[in-house]
Structures are given as C-alpha cells and as structure tokens.
C-alpha cells in the first residue's frame, strides 16, 4: 500500500466491468451508485392468505382446464402437456431443396419439441420455499421422469442433439399465470442458444495455470470451469449464500446480472445431469433450494418473484462420462429494493451491455443477513 | 408442389428457428400459436392530456433538478450531465500488478465514461412522433454534438477504443422517469458487448455467393452484411414498414425478438456514423423516425413504449473509410396485444433462447395497416 490509495482500483468503489466466462459476456458494475445507506424494505410483509384449494385455479386437483381436460385428484406431483404449446411434437416438416446456396440473412429451419407443465404439490397455497424437503425431492423425481421420457421421444425421431429446459416462472411480475406451485419443461430438437453457449465455453475451457490439487477435476480428469469456479467460491466465501455438505453451493456469481441472481451448483464432483444424482445429493439439492428460496422471500417479506432454470447435459443422454455438462440452476429475480421496485433491463442494457449497481458481494451479504425462518411462519401465518 | 403440402415446411404454420447473423443468435418462432383471429385493440385510446409545461417535471425549461441545478429556459434541445451517472469521467484507477496469471473466473477491470441526458424539445407534452421533422433534425444535431465531444474526452485520456451509446427509454413500462421527451447518452472507454458482437459479425461477414450488382457495396468495395440485408428487404417488401427515398428503410427484421421490433437502416450506402450524414439523409432520417413512431402509437392507440438505440462506429472516430460500422437504429417495444399486454422475456427465454409467436411478416403487415395520421390528431386533441 502506497500513498496512492485514492486512485488504486477498488471494485467496491469504482465503476468496472466483470467477465462471465460461462457465456463470454460482460456486466458493467457501478458500485459508486450504492453509496447511499441501504434503506431496507419499507413495505408491509405480503401475507396473501391463499386457500389450500381454489376452485378457480386451473392447476388445482380435480379442476377443469381451459381445454376442457380435468386434472386428476393428484396427491404428489402432476405432469401434463401444456394446452397452448410453443413447440409441437409432430414430425419435422420437410424443407424444399433449393439449388441456390442458403442465404445467411434469411435462414430458418423447422424444429420440434414438447411443452409440459409440472405441478409441484396439490396444495394451492404452497411454494417451493414452504414445501417439505421430501416434497421437493419428489419434484426432482418428476423432473427426472420427464427428462428420461423426453429423451426417448427425441431418440425415436431425431438424429440430432436435443435439450430439455426445466424452468419455473414465479410471480405475476415474471408472467406466471397462477400462484399454484408449478414449473414448466420445454423440450427442443436442438440445443438452444443459452445452454449451447455455456457448453461451448465449458468444452473449450483452458485454465491459465494448473488449478490447486484441492480443486476437483471433471469426469475426464481435466480442470473443469464450473468445478474450479465452485471450489474457489467455497474458499473465498464472500459470495456464498448457502452451502450443503452433500456437495452443493449457492452463490451470487461474480458476474451476476440480476441484483440477487443466484447460481446453485455442485462443488465436489461433476454431475452431468440430475440422472446421476446420488440419493444424498438429491436430498441435499432439495434442502439447499428450500433454504435459498426462504432467504429470497425474507429479503423483502414477500413471495419473491424469479425465473429459475436447470442446465444439464443435452438429450438423448450420451455416455455421461464423456459429458462436459455440469448440472446447475440459475435463479434470476427481478426485484431491486423492495417488493415493488424492480430492475428494468432496458436502454443501455439492451443496446450496450447489462449493468448493475449493487455488487455481487453486497447482494450475497444481504441474502446471508436475513433470517433462515420464513417470514410468514414468524408472524404466525398458519400453514 | 406435390401432394405433400401438409408436411412441407411452411414458416407461416410450423414452429421454426431463425438466425440473426448480426449477433450470431437465434429466435424460436411459434406461428401456430397465432392462428386465432387477431383481436385488434379493445382498449380506449390513451389520450393523456399532458400540459405543455409541468412545474413538477425535472426536465422542463427553468425547473430545478434534484441535485439543485436549474435547467436553463432552453428553446431547442438541451444536454446535461446525468445527476446519478452509472459511469464516471474521472481518470482510470490503476490496477495493482500481480505476479499471478489473471484468473479468468474473477476478471474485472476499471472503466470510465460519462452519462448525459438530452431533452428533445422544451414542450413537456410532445414526443418524437408528434414533433416537427425539423425539430427531430435538431435532435440528430444534438446527438452529433455529443458524439464529437465525447470522442474528444476519450481521445484526451485513453488509448483504447470507446463507444457512445445514444438511446431512449420511452414510457414507464420501460423505466422512463418522466414523460418529457428526452433520451440518454452513455459513453464508455470500451465497446460494450452488443455493439462489439455486431461489429465482429460485420467484420467477418463472408457472403456464400457474390451478391447481385444491384446491391450496394461497403466503403471497402466488398459486400457488407447490413447493406446486402437492407437491399434484399427493400426487394422482398414483406417486412418493410417505411421507406424513405433519401436512403432509409424501416423493417421488422427477419430475426426480430420483440413483437413489433424495428431495425431502421440505410439501404443505399454505408454510413459509418451520423457524422457522415448528408443534409438530405439527416432530414430523411428525421422523417422516417417520425413515421415509424406514429405507426407505433397508432397500433394500440397509446403512447407506444420502447427502448430505442443507435449503433454506429466506435470512438474516437478513426478514418471513416476504414470502418465496417453501419449506422442503424434498433426499436425494442415490449407491447404484444394491447396497450397493457406486454411480452415477458422470462423462463425459457432467459434459460433457453428468445421466442415469439407473431411472425416478423405478420408484425410488419400490422404496422403497415395502421393509419399514417397520429390517432390523437384524428380525434382532435389539440396540439
Ligand atoms: Zn447455465
Ligand atoms: Zn445494432
């Protein structure tokens, strides 16, 4: 330290750019804009007392959906085909052959796939944050079932690699159509841009120096970007929100875009897909998901809106030992300062690059500082 | 045509993927979801009668902003430094030198820049759509002034290439803080991801075959991606919304993500930045911008929200004849079916890839079908 402190780069003070090696993009960070004292949440806790069953909900057991189909009186999870799917499972139409070379400016190709809905629980008023760990284990079983089934569907009819995108939109701010706990699964006869970009960066990762022996290696014995990253985050601690000894860590990633974005990933070994989870890992995953989501809800004492997604190996599953994929979950919540103040991804962020004020380290600290007990239980809302 | 029509790929019927050669990404298109008849707009026209001057508006002439600074009684455009900038113009802090190789998973670098606001007009109740063409010509002059000035600022202090991002967020849905007509300019000591990606694809464009002699060439005499694209769109017509003989075309691009996204670009010659506009081109640009924005407002009879951004050559301007950049504007409006139904970019779109139902061709048809006269003038709202 010299007398130059005032002009030495300090990422907690100075505008800077961070690099996301998983997708090869940057984020502009403006920490000088968060110098004002953190005002905390000033709104009253959101205690919407939802009924355990809602006759108007198209997802509740026994109710009839808009297409006229009646839901069974399911007791556990319930999977059905989306009544208004963005993808169709019918065979691919044929493309007219042309003698002209393809025009790179007007390239389109037919795709196929399937859109499913998975109800997490029969009870209308629950959320993943307030479900039992065992119930979340059942949800993961439901995801496994769909992943296997969709793999067969694609194998039957395609030679190409496909993808199963498991995700959840929670809250009307994220376009969710109903509060009933549920997620979606879209299968595509190709690997979409986001996971394809990640897989490309995982496959081409080359560390600048040999990682320490304490960092686990990938299934091929080589350094693995996401395993080395998770190991470093566990050591550095400052961005860790939750850690589960079964081998999972939840961090606000160094390159987070959303204010309270979380990356949930294994830190002990490479797990190409949820099919390779041990029972202990699956239970640990359920446990850490619940803990993360309780912290989210407690941050502004509201049902925290988010999009959550699972990235794993493409379909149909090939030899898992040859996979570069590492199972991980992204949580992208839009809230910024309270239950009603959201981040807008507009203007410079659309035209230039994504930007944030709060640093990832500040966000992780805030998430660690809230209670581990759900706010609705504290104020005595009946379960 | 054989008897196989039912299974021959038809992009107006079948789910497909389109490729965006400007950024190397795809969009999933689900046209089968728009088979239902177009319901048009069912809400009453939005006729918010704003005052010509609002004492509470921080952008109106003569008013005092939150920082305590008083706006002059400006008559034309007015440019000032953002009171709460995401970037600072102070000299770059120095980075501690390290003996260790840089860690690709924790890479950050200090950046500098500047954030400015440009009021388009002293009148609180106007928008670009309702301003006179001459007044929009003045706005473009304002942009030119900032571009030159920011270039000098960067040249003085940096050796690296920078970027001037001119943009506008319009409407509270896009996070705009005030209805007063205004835009923003963020200058950065680097080229942000979006324009950098575009410039990379422009620089590496290699057409699969020699384009027709009727397609204009770039300044280097070679085929240019955006010039060939614009020339093809002018010929094909189906995605063209407006065309100005001075050399501008507004299209819903083949690879549009937002329902009524528009790309406004030159089709006659390469124009690296707005500094190279002829007076005729500048006036034509003002004219076509106004026409596009009138169509937007008329689509749902409301002040159409959008983010608009200008991409052009990086800073400091080097020899324009060696530039690959082509001046163009992106318009990203969030509305889908009415003044209140917006598209959410969530779930699969965040985790997989962007998706749309309405095709670019359908969107262009709807924009062409609305009146050229602003709805507020039709119902006799006084200017
Ligand atoms: Zn991922
Ligand atoms: Zn662009």
Summarize the structure.
2 copies of one chain form a homodimer. With 383 residues, chain A is α+β, with helices and mostly antiparallel strands. The first copy, chain A, has a single domain (16-29, 52-90, 109-373), classed as 2-Layer Sandwich (HIT family, subunit A).
| Tally of individual helices of chain A | 7
Q: Give the oligomeric state of the chains in this entry, treating copies of one chain as homo and distinct chains as hetero.
A: homodimer
Order of helices and strands of chain A: EEEEEHEEHHEEEHEEHEHH
Range of helix content of chain A: 10-25%
Strand order of the largest sheet of chain A: 3-5-7-6-11-12-10-9-8
Bound molecules: zinc ion
- Average pLDDT confidence of chain A is 90
Q: Given this structure, which CATH class of chain A is correct?
A: Alpha Beta
How many individual domains of chain A?
A: 1
Sheet of most strands of chain A:
9 strands, antiparallel
Task: Report Rg of chain A.
Answer: 22 Å
CATH topology of chain A: the name is HIT family, subunit A
Large-scale geometry of chain A = globular
State which percent range the strand residues of chain A make up.
Answer: 15-25%
CATH architecture level-2 label of chain A: 2-Layer Sandwich
- The total of beta strands of chain A comes to 13
CATH superfamily of chain A: HIT-like
Distance between the termini of chain A: 55 Å
Largest binding interface between chains: A-B, 85 and 85 residues
Unreliable stretches covering 5 or more consecutive residues of chain A: 1-5
Instruction: Supply the helix-strand structural class of chain A.
Output: alpha+beta
InterPro entries (chains A, B): GalP_UDPtransf1, GalP_UDPtransf1_His-AS, GalP_Utransf_C, GalP_Utransf_N, HIT-like_sf
Protein name (chains A, B): Galactose-1-phosphate uridylyltransferase
Family (chains A, B): Belongs to the galactose-1-phosphate uridylyltransferase type 1 family.
GO molecular function, one term (chains A, B): UDP-glucose:hexose-1-phosphate uridylyltransferase activity
């Amino acid at each position: 330290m010299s007398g130059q402190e005032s002009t030495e780069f300090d990422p907690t003070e100075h505008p800077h750019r961070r690099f996301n090696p998983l997708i090869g993009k940057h984020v502009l960070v403006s920490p000088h804009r968060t110098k004002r004292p953190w005002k905390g949440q000033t709104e009253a806790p959101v205690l919407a007392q939802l009924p355990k069953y809602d006759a108007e909900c198209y997802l509740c057991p026994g109710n009839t959906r808009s297409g006229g189909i009646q839901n069974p009186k399911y007791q556990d999870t319930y999977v059905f085909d989306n009544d208004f799917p963005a993808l169709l499972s019918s065979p691919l139409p044929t493309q007219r052959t042309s003698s002209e070379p393809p025009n790179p400016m007007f390239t389109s190709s037919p795709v196929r796939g399937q859109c499913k809905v998975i109800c997490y629980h029969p009870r209308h008023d629950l959320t993943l944050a307030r479900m039992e760990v065992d119930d979340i284990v059942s949800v993961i079983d439901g995801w496994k079932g769909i992943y296997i089934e969709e793999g067969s569907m694609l194998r039957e009819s395609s030679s190409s690699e496909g993808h199963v995108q498991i995700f959840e939109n929670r809250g009307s701010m994220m376009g969710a159509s109903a509060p009933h706990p549920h997620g979606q699964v879209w299968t595509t006869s190709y690997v979409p841009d986001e996971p394809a970009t990640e897989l490309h960066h995982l496959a081409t990762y080359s560390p600048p120096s040999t990682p320490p022996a304490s960092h686990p290696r990938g299934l091929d014995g080589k350094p693995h970007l996401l395993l080395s990253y998770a190991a470093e985050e566990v050591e550095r601690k400052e961005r860790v929100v939750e850690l589960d000894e079964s081998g999972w860590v939840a961090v606000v990633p160094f390159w987070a875009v959303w204010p309270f974005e979380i990356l949930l990933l294994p830190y002990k070994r490479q797990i190409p897909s949820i099919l390779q989870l041990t029972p202990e890992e699956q239970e640990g995953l359920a446990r850490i998901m619940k803990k993360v989501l309780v912290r989210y809800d407690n941050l502004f004492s509201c049902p925290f809106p988010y999009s959550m997604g699972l990235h794993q190996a493409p379909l149909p599953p090939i030899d898992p030992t040859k996979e570069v994929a590492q199972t991980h979950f992204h949580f992208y919540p839009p809230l910024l300062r309270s239950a009603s103040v959201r981040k807008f991804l507009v203007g410079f962020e659309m035209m230039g690059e994504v930007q944030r004020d709060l640093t990832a380290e500040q966000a992780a600290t805030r998430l660690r500082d809230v209670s581990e007990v759900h706010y609705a239980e504290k104020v005595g809302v009946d379960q």
